[in-house]
């Protein structure tokens, strides 16, 4: 049966970077609610218009909206191996996910917590750049884009918004650590290490 893996951790911890590796090497499908919302904002859909207000301020988009998106995605993906990147972010989202999976006779297989300091996250987010054509993530210092690749900075990777997003993480998302610990599903990786070392730790946890 397809595995459901959650990547939990603050913005900028390296979740998207590692999900791209697992996609390339093992075919895991990455569901990033942030990517889905940014796509909707770009297209100017109703969802995009609603989400933009929250995203620009570093706040969370309302749970019912996000849960609706995930429900649709999970239906569409059937029995694939899935990485949930940036979801759930609140206790109600986690409860909704458990219920959704339960109805299909499934459950979350493992939750990987990306452990990293706020200070390190600020360095990573302020240097993050994205290739808008491929969605590939770079860092001006730690993983510079190849020559000729045009990159942009995300609107919410500005200092004031970064601080707000971190505050929101500690208040609303961090309680999920206890939630999944009590289900015996939580595995912690040291996300402050270089990309390859973090990847090794994740593969160990997932027995890949
Ligand atoms: P998240 O998806 O958790 O928000 P990203 O994967 O986008 O985080 O990574 C944030 C930034 O940090 C990016 O610029 C990325 O290139 C860089 N990065 C990711 N992992 C590492 C690492 N282990 N060491 C140094 N920089 C990293
Ligand atoms: P991310 O790309 O994961 O850093 O998400 C960017 C922004 O999208 C967040 O700051 C939120 O505004 C919104 N967002 C993404 N995922 C969620 C979620 N699961 N719940 C609520 N808001 C979300």
Structure in a nutshell:
By secondary structure, the protein is of the alpha/beta class.
Q: Radius of gyration over alpha carbons?
A: 16 Å
Count the strands?
7
What binds here, in terms of ligands, is: adenosine-5'-diphosphate, adenosine monophosphate
Q: Spell the H/E element sequence.
A: EHEHHHEHEHEEHHEH
Largest sheet: 5 strands, parallel
Task: State the helix count.
Answer: 9
What sort of overall outline do the alpha carbons produce when their principal axes are compared?
A: globular
Distance separating the two termini: 16 Å
What is the percent of helical residues?
40-55%
CATH class: Alpha Beta
Which sequence of strands runs across the widest sheet? 2-3-1-4-7
The CATH homologous superfamily name equals P-loop containing nucleotide triphosphate hydrolases
- Counted up, domains total 1
Description:
- The chain has a single domain, classed as P-loop containing nucleotide triphosphate hydrolases (Rossmann fold), CATH 3.40.50.300.
- The protein is globular.
- Helix 2 (33-43) packs across helix 3 (46-56) and helix 6 (118-127) crosses helix 7 (159-173).
- The strands form two sheets. Strands 2-3-1-4-7 form a five-stranded parallel beta sheet, sandwiched between helices. A two-stranded antiparallel ribbon has the order 5-6.
- The protein is an alpha/beta fold.
- A hairpin with a 6-residue loop joins strand 5 (128-130) and strand 6 (137-139).
- The protein contains nine helices and seven strands, in the order E-H-E-H-H-H-E-H-E-H-E-E-H-H-E-H.
- Bound molecules: adenosine-5'-diphosphate and adenosine monophosphate.
- Adenosine-5'-diphosphate is lined by residues 11-17, 124, 127-128, 137-139, 142-143, 193-195, 198.
- Adenosine monophosphate (AMP) binds at residues 11, 33-34, 37, 54-55, 58-61, 66, 86-87, 89, 93, 156, 165.
């Amino acid at each position: 049966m397809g595995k459901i893996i959650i990547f939990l951790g603050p913005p900028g911890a390296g979740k998207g970077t590692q999900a791209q590796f697992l996609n390339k090497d093992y075919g895991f499908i990455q569901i990033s609610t942030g990517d889905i919302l940014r796509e909707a904002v770009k297209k100017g859909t109703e969802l995009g218009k609603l989400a933009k207000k929250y995203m620009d301020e570093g706040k969370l988009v309302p749970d019912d909206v996000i849960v609706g998106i995930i429900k649709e995605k999970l239906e569409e993906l059937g029995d694939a191996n899935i990485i949930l990147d940036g979801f759930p972010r609140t206790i109600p989202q986690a409860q909704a996910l458990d219920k959704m999976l339960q109805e299909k006779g499934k459950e979350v297989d493992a939750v990987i917590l990306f452990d990293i300091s706020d200070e390190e996250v600020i360095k990573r987010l302020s240097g993050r750049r994205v290739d808008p054509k491929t969605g590939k993530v770079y860092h001006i210092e730690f993983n510079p884009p190849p020559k000729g690749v045009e990159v942009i900075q995300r609107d919410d990777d500005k200092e004031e918004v970064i601080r707000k997003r971190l505050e929101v993480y500690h208040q609303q998302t961090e309680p999920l650590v206890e939630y999944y610990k009590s289900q015996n599903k939580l595995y912690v990786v040291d996300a402050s290490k270089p990309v390859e070392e973090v990847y090794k730790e994740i593969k160990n946890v997932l027995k890949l």
